[in-house]
């Protein structure tokens, strides 16, 4: 049996067509799913509906999948050991990475990272439960989503599920901030055991998906920020000591940055140089593009994506005894390029997310999510205003999820616009209509 193409439930593929490869079936199941369609209405940086230019979770996921697929093809050509296919977790199928990239953000609730933060705070304080976007991915894929002939999510192949699993831990374990909820971890853990995966190690495909997500974030979000006027491409911003200090503070506060060994470099100097180089590059390309801002933005983005993509490789990880997908130069990890990407990610964060106007929108979304939660959280009254199909699913499988988790799932599945619509029905001074279809 091919352990990469095994499924947790539909072992004999009796509920799927026989004339397609298993990964093609996974791709179809993902893009045909309601959860994937709803990504078009969920925020990336700017609120979904802010304009027809800015990225949503859907366009972001499509861009990540395109980058990841092409990098996977390159790695297969340049790393002979991949052709040996000696271990299911040390393989690189472009189709698998593409599917994982399409699915990597399904678990994000409305209103971006703020929505995730608020839901987690509510669940922890009131129920002792957690909410985390990566864990919610698996809840959607393995439980909430339904497809014809199955009551067990989309039932994707093991390869795709483990390629989405960039944090191979049970979130219910004490101290875990990212991982998989206990209910879904049971299935993921069984697949990892079947593969013989080392504890705490992600597959190469999951690592590549994660890195390409960062590449997209550090290039595309800045493009959106420039277009929105939030990132002013002039010396007054890029040479501002306050910007440098804010970027540095975000790097210091991010626990994931320990692997970049910032203690080995002068962080302030590197941040200043990286920002100055970015501005100088913009000014040069601006002239090349006939002083057209739109062309300059696209060319700038393309060159940085190309720079990052060309640096991706696979090396041995002496700490884990596994292999690592990362930036490589001269056969070793390119920490300078990793740090540069992190600086650009934090540039996007401090100029976009920390902008006071964006923070006002975050405060508004926080209020909406909290009041929606208050409306639904008491079962006796909440069940009167939750759609019947959710109630039927809850009653059918109530042994698998408490009411509070179901409410969180319902809110998390909303698009930005739908969350605002329901909130307005409850709290705004407007008349609703019983003929509106949800």
UniProtKB/TrEMBL annotation:
PROSITE patterns the UniProt entry points to: HD
Q: InterPro entries from the xrefs?
A: dGTPase, dGTPase-like, HD/PDEase_dom, HD_domain, PHydrolase_assoc_dom
* Record GO terms (molecular function): dGTPase activity
Keywords assigned by UniProt, alphabetized: Hydrolase
**Domain (HD) ranges:** 57-218
- Give the source's domain of life in one word: Bacteria
Q: Name one GO biological process term.
A: dGTP catabolic process
Concerning CDD domains, the annotation shows: HDc
Q: What is this protein called?
A: DNTP triphosphohydrolase
Print the organism lineage: Bacteria, Bacillati, Bacillota, Bacilli, Bacillales
């Amino acid at each position: 049996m091919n352990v990469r193409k095994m499924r947790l439930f539909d072992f004999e593929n009796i509920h799927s067509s026989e004339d397609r490869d298993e990964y093609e079936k996974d791709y179809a199941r993902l893009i045909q799913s309601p959860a994937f369609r709803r990504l078009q209405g969920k925020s990336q940086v700017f609120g979904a509906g802010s304009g027809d230019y800015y990225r949503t979770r859907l366009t972001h996921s499509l861009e990540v999948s395109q980058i990841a697929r092409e990098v996977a093809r390159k790695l297969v050509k340049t790393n002979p050991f991949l052709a040996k296919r000696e271990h299911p977790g040390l393989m690189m199928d472009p189709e698998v990475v593409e599917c994982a990239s399409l699915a990597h953000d399904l678990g994000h609730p409305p209103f971006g990272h703020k929505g995730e933060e608020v839901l987690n705070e509510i669940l922890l304080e009131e129920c002792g439960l957690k909410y985390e976007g990566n864990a919610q991915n698996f809840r959607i894929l393995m439980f909430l989503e339904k497809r014809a002939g199955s009551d067990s999510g989309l039932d994707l192949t093991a390869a795709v599920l483990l390629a989405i699993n960039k944090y191979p831990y049970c979130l219910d374990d004490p101290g875990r901030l990212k991982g998989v909820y206990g209910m879904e971890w049971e299935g993921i853990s069984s697949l990892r055991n079947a593969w013989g995966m080392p504890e705490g190690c992600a597959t190469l495909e999951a690592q590549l998906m994660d890195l390409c997500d960062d590449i997209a974030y550090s290039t595309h979000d800045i493009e959106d920020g420039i277009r929105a006027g939030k990132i002013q491409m002039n010396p007054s911003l890029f040479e501002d000591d306050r910007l440098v200090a804010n970027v540095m503070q975000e790097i210091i506060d991010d626990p994931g940055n320990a692997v970049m060994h910032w203690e080995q470099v002068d962080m302030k100097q590197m941040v200043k140089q990286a920002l100055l180089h970015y501005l100088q590059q913009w000014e040069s390309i601006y002239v090349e593009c006939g002083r057209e801002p739109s062309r300059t933005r696209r060319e700038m983005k393309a060159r940085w994506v190309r720079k990052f993509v060309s640096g991706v490789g696979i090396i041995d990880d002496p700490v884990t005894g596994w292999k690592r997908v990362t930036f490589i130069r001269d056969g070793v990890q390119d920490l300078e390029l990793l740090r540069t990407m992190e600086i650009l990610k934090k540039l996007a964060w401090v100029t976009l997310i920390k902008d006071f106007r964006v923070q006002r929108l975050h405060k508004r979304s926080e209020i909406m999510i909290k009041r929606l939660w208050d409306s639904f959280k008491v079962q006796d009254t909440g069940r009167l205003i939750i759609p019947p199909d959710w109630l039927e699913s809850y009653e059918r499988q109530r042994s698998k999820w408490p009411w509070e988790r179901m409410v969180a799932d319902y809110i998390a599945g909303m698009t930005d616009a739908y969350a605002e619509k329901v909130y307005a029905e409850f709290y705004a001074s407007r008349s609703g209509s019983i003929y509106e279809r949800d």
